[in-house]
Amino acid sequence: MPQDPVDMVDDLIKMGLYKDSQLRAADRVNAHELRKALFLKQVGRGDPQREKLILALCKQAGGLENAFAAAFGPQAGLFFADSIRNSGTTRREFLRNMAVGAALVTLASCGGNGDPATQDAADAPIDPSALEKTDIQVGFIPITCATPIIMSDPLGFYERYGFNATTVRMPSWGAVRDSAIAGELDAYHMLAPMPIAMTLGLGSPTFGVRLASIQNINGQAITIAERHRGNVNGPEDFRGFIIGVPFPYSMHNLLIRYYLATGGLNPDTDVQIRPVPPPDSIAQLIAGDIDAMLMPDPFNQRAVFEEAGFIYMLTKDLWNGHPCCAFTASDNWIEANPNSFRALNKAILEAAGYARDPGNRAEIAAAISGRAYLNQPQEVVEAVLTGNFEDGLGNTQSVPDRIDFDPHPWQSFAKWISSQLLRWDLQGDGRVSEVITSDTFNSIGEEIFLTDLARELAEELGQNPPAENSREEQLAFDTFDPSDPAAYVQSQIDTFGV
């Protein structure tokens, strides 16, 4: 009888005791799914003996990450094939990892029915008994920024966490704000500045909203009407334009103001910035009601598709990694449904992690393009999500991070947004300077952006969120130091005159 476990595994394979289907299971379960199965279903149940066994198995594979990468990663099939073809040492490593993989899959599937080769461990249902509410409604605007919220319906993320969820398409951001205040739905897709504005009473009655996670980074563009082709080469050439943005308290409004000011334009006097619901933006561009727009996708790409305009600049070129939209819920709902909020946030974080993988983008585009969600041509949505697109100027672009899905709600995001709300005083009545001061930048972010909770939930999912809450943000024309937002605002005014 062989004493070396690897030799034993080799013999068991030769004897046919390890079935091909069992060996293939490790190929089919990817690292993300395995982490979910192990830590949510097994370790999360507080069984120290099971945790000890799992850690011992992973140690045999050379560490947790090695076990995941070698046995269950997206390239596992190639790894196994190469291992079989290569030397005895590599084969032994392969057999060791395969043994570990088979054991881990078996553990992850323990307690269920069926062959682990046919049961996807990640699809094991979450016990919903602790949830205060399982029948939920989540509001969204039909844009690609809402991808994690939308895709969680057809791809089963809500169901996995015990929810019977209905996604509710909203007509405008004003409708989202008003619906949240009225308590009509359970959770919402909002623009990242909206929870700050609503909680501080800017543009609406004071109403507490928490930003649970960022839905997307990048993913917007400045699109100019076809009739202005060849006439715009810099921010100074926007003088006299009517520019559409989706909402006053939006990253779109703050970013277009940031850009125009670098060309010496005063956004309040040298141009007109007009709120336009995203679904209406193409018609207004064609009709001449607006000359340009800084809008969420897929409407920039749809403008190219309809030959109504061209993509002048992606917002990632103004600030690579900037936040745009967010997953949110009101203070009232969170207080009444703490367990449901935690589980719902976790479902969204998991969906965002899935969407972040470029290999999943085409599948997601197919799932969310239909009438119930974005109601857009699939080729338009896929162009946005994959970053392979026509810009309307005769160029085929490849920008894989045109949109991305990093859910970490950095405190530096909250501080930059607050600094720009202060800079532009969108209400014009002095209210902003009363509630956003040098002393309140930190408290605003800490109260509204749930950074610590997002990190905790991401770690439970096996994701790798940043350990930090804040970071220096590099924009196209300056660098934002989150330690002194007030000084940043003053430096902008001193440099650009507005």
TrEMBL record:
Transferase among keywords: no
Pfam family of the protein (one): NMT1_2
Source superkingdom: Bacteria
Membrane-spanning segments: none
InterPro entries the record matches: NrtA/CpmA_ABC-bd_dom
SUPFAM superfamilies, A to Z: Periplasmic binding protein-like II
Keyword hit for Cell inner membrane: yes
Protein name from the UniProt record: ABC transporter substrate-binding protein
Compartments where located: Cell inner membrane
Keyword annotations from UniProtKB, A to Z: Cell inner membrane, Cell membrane, Ion transport, Membrane, Transport
Organism of this sequence: Phormidium yuhuli AB48
